[in-house]
Amino acid sequence: MAETAYLQENVGEALKMALAAMVVDQPDDAVEFIGTYLVNHATKHEREEARAKKYASLAESIAVSDAAAAEVAAAAEARRTASDPTEAEAELDKELEETDDVESLYPQLMDAVRRQTGCTAAYVGVKGEKEGVPLIGFCGASEGCDMAGNVLKGGIGEDEPAEGVTFDLFQQREEYEEELAAATAAVEEATGPATEAEAPVAEAQAAVDGAQAAVDEKKALEGDDADPEGLAEAEKALEGAQATLAEAQKTLDEAQKTLTEAEAAKDAVLQYPSRAFVANVVREDRIKFFGIPRCGSYCAAAVKYDSALHAEGIGEPVPEEPAEEAPEAPEEGAEPAEEPAPPARAPKNQPVIVPVERVLCVHAMGQAKDLAEDKQLLVEAWAKKLGEAHARADAKRWAASAMLREDAAEAAEARREAASTAEAEAATAAEAAAAERTEGYGEDGAPDGAEDRAAAEAAVASAEAVLATYADALSELARDKIPPSEAAVASLQASLLVCGVSSESCASFTGAPDWAKAAAALAEALPTLSGEGKKDFVSLIAADADGSAPLEGVDVEAAKAAAEAAPGDDGFYAADALAKLSAWAAALAALWDLVKAQKQAADEAEAAAEAEDD
C-alpha cells in the first residue's frame, strides 16, 4: 500500500502523461518510448527547478541591491535635508532682511551656518588696522566656539608674514593682472565688429522703409493709374530689403552677443580669492591655532559691503529736484483729483560710503574629513548674504541717524536757552543758600573751608541743572549710529570715567574707540545723571575724596588727565551737550580736589596736635 502511494505521488502523473503521449504517437517500441519520455520529463523538471532557484537567487540579489540603493538614497536625502534651512532658520532669513542690527543676530546666524555646513564651528570677524598692521578681530561665534574675542594679526612684509591663511582673502590673486588683460583684450576685439555691424543694419532699415513706401505708393494707385507690374516689382524689392535687414540684424545680434559674453567674462575675473580653504589644518604650517589642534578642514570667505557709518559719513546736501508742473485744473463738474501722498522723509545730505571687510569662517576640526565642495560654496553664499544684510542694515541706521542729527540741530537753540535759564536759577539758588548759611554761622563766622566746600558743591549743582536740560540731547547721541569724530569720542570717554566707565571697556580690538560700546555706556550712565535714578554724585565724590567710601572703578585723577588731554570738537552737532557733560565732570573733579585737600589738611593738623600732646 505504501509502495503504491509512493509511485502515485512521484511517478504516477509522469507515467500518465507518457502513456497518453504513447497512445497519440503509436511508437513501435512502447517500452523504449515510455522510458525515453520519463527520462526527458525528469531532465525538464530538473532544468525548471534549477531555473527557479536561479530566479529566486537573482530576485534576492535584486532585493538586496534595491535595499542598499534605498539606504544610500535615504542617507543622501538626510544629508541634503540636514543642510536645508529649518523653520527657525527660514524665519531668521526674514529677520536678516529686515533688521538694522545684524550683529545682534550673530549667535543664531553662526549656529545656522555651522549646522547647514555640517562643521564643528562657525565664526565671523571684522578687518581693522592698528599702527599700520592689519588685524582681524573675531566678534561672533556659534554655540560652544570660543573664537569671539580672539585677534588674528596680518603681515607687514616678507619678514613678518600674516598669521594663518585668512588674510589670503584680501591679497590680490597672482593671475589677476594676466586674466584681466586677456579679458580686456577680448572685449576690445569684440567691440569693433559690434560697432561695425550697426551701420549695415541702419542702412538696411532705411532700404526697407523706402521699399515699404514704394509698395504703399503703388497700392494707393486706383483705376487707370493702377500698376500691377510695378506693385509686384516693389513688393519683390521690399522682400529683398527685408531679407538684407534680417541678415544684417543677425550679424549685429551675433556680434553683440559675443561682446556681451566678453564683458561678462571680464566682470567675472576675480581680483581676490573667493575663499580660503585648507583640507587638513594640522598639515598646514601657516594655520594659527587658538586651541588644541585637531584634524579637519578650514574654510573662510570674505564679507564685503559698503557703509556710511563712519565719522565722515555725512556728505554734501542732496541736489534739489526740479519743481513739478502744477496739474491742470479739473473740468467743471469733474471730481477733483486725489492729492498725491507726501513723499516719505529722507535725509537732507548724501551718504559717503567706504568699503567694509569682514570674514566668515568655519572649521570641521575633530571630524577628520574634507569639507565638501558644495559646503564650501555654501560658506561663500552665506558670506554674500551677510554682506548684503550688513549693507541694508547700515543704510537704515545711517538714514535714521542723519535725520536724528537734523532734528538735533533744529532743537539746539531751544536747548541753549533752557540751559541759560537753568544756570541762572542755579546761581540764584546758590546765592540764597549762601545767605542762609551766613545767618546760621553766628558771631564766629564760617568754619575754615566751609564756604569753599559749599561753593564747590553749588558749582556741581549748577552743572547738574544745566546738564539736565541736555539729557534728551545726550540720549539722542547715544542712539546715533554714525560715529562722532575721535575728538568728540575722547571728550565723552573722559567724562564717563567719573561714572566708572573705563576707556578700555569702550575700545575695539584695534585699541581705537568703539562707538557702539561708548554709545551703549552713555545710554547706561544717563539714568544716573538725571531723572528718578539720579545718583548723589556730590556725596559719592566727597566720600571717595576723603577715603570714607572709595568709589569702585572710578579714578578721578585719571579722569582729570583725560579731560585735559581731550581736545573736543566744536564742529560736532552735539558739541554743546558734550561740553555740558565735561563741565559737570570738571565740577566734580574740582570738588574732589577740594575735599581731598581739606581732608589732608585736617589729618596733618590732627597729627601735629597729637605730636604736641606727646
Element string (H = helix, E = strand): HHHHEEEHHHEEEEEHHHHHHHH
Q: Which oligomeric form is depicted?
A: single chain
Rounded mean pLDDT is 86
Low-confidence stretches: none
Strand order of the largest sheet: 3-2-1-8-5-4
Class by alpha and beta content: alpha+beta
What fraction of the residues are assigned to beta strands by DSSP?
5-15%
Helix content: 55-70%
Biased composition (Acidic residues): 318-338
Keywords: Coiled coil
InterPro entries: Dpy-30_motif, DYDC-like_DD
Organism: Pelagomonas calceolata
Describe this structure in words.
This is RIIa domain-containing protein. Residues 201-265 form a coiled coil. InterPro entries: Dpy-30_motif, DYDC-like_DD. This protein has 614 residues and is an alpha+beta fold. The protein folds into four domains: 2-81; 100-171 and 275-311 and 349-393, GAF domain (Beta-Lactamase); 176-267; 447-613, no CATH class. Helices cover 60% and strands 8% of the residues. The strands form two sheets. A six-stranded antiparallel beta sheet has the order 3-2-1-8-5-4. Strands 6-7 form a two-stranded antiparallel sheet. Strand 1 (121-130) and strand 2 form a beta hairpin. It is flat.
